[in-house]
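Field notebook, page 389. I keep forgetting to write these up properly, so this time I am using the form the group agreed on. The chain and the ligand, pyridoxal-5'-phosphate, are recorded exactly as supplied. Prediction of the bound pose follows.
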Amino acid sequence: LEGELEAIRGAGTWKSERVIASRQGPHLRLAGGGAGILNFCANNYLGLSSHPEVIRAAVEALEKFGAGLSSVRFICGTQSIHKDLEEKIAHFHQREDAILYASCFDANAGIFEALLTPEDAVLSDELNHASIIDGIRLCKANKYRYKHMDMQDLEAKLKEAQKHRLRLVATDGAFSMDGDIAPLREICQLAQKYDALVFIDECHATGFLGPSGRGTDELLGVMDKVTIINSTLGKALGGAAGGYTTGPKPLIDLLRQRSRPYLFSNSLPPAVVGCASKALDLLMESNAIAQSMAAKTQRFRSKMTAAGFTISGKDHPICPVMLGDARLASVMAEDMLNRGIYVIGFSYPVVPKGKARIRVQISAVHSDEDIDRCVEAFTEVGRKHGALP
Ligand code: PLP
């Protein structure tokens, strides 16, 4: 093991964890010092992780329903709040039903094996999230991997997959490393042409993409064409934990019978259910929070572009500042922290070689001043390290 650990360090891919001593939010205190750090690397897109009403809802659920169920759902682990939240999720996405999991990782791990047989086929974008890749590994269907968002390649693979009983196209709605959005309209057209179902992972879209924050399918006008949605409660929707599948009722019924991470893992704790449920209420009352996040994203993207940086993706709060060189990304991220701004550099193998970047994530609770301070720091640090002229 020591040798293996050394090899990871030697390869420069060691992931260290910074310890936060405050709540999640735009301003953090780090353990052992560092107060007032501006945080630009959480998936807290709507700033609900520490929203007072979300916290209150968690406390109330904890008081009323206890710390946890000490059980899986089908034994004695289903409370009224679990059923209410499932109904709320299905309503939010305008789908027939929904099923909760301990995480979206579990939802992705559980769906393909339960749904697909060796007679079926799954066609997966090559840059899909690790949990989709693992879920697909667990199933016995025939596997096709198409080039990232390449519709010609997807069509070729769909033609090849015609020999199978059922075809499922699986894609992230928004891809977390590049902030780019799957061409769902084209995917759904191809799916219709070649008689396939469409599955999307909406972890980086639920709550804020589309006119009322329903996600990528709403943004691209294909809510009635996407069959299955998996998403998380651990990012925009309160940020505690939990995941779900929403879609046709028979599919959800089947998952309750067959999906292993659902059948053999504890029910979501009531406090966590309370957080997500309140987050959804807040979103369904008004989309002002999502709009405020979109305006701040626009501010950051346009100011950074004007400063001379290249920001990947379009209109998404994931704003990867493309730098190319891995060392440059790492020293710049370090220097940003020296200036009180917490951002993370990503390099190979997390992203392709030569495409190192610092990933900035915008939240509705960043102020305009926070955004401007971040851009100013990037400009200084970029000039210092030669990323800007
Ligand atoms: N899918 C995508 C695209 C993600 O980014 C993540 C989280 O990183 C997951 C699934 C897993 O979500 P959870 O944290 O709920 O397990």
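OBSERVATIONS:
- The mean pLDDT is 96.
- The chain has 15 helices and 14 strands.
FOLLOW-UP: compare against the apo run.
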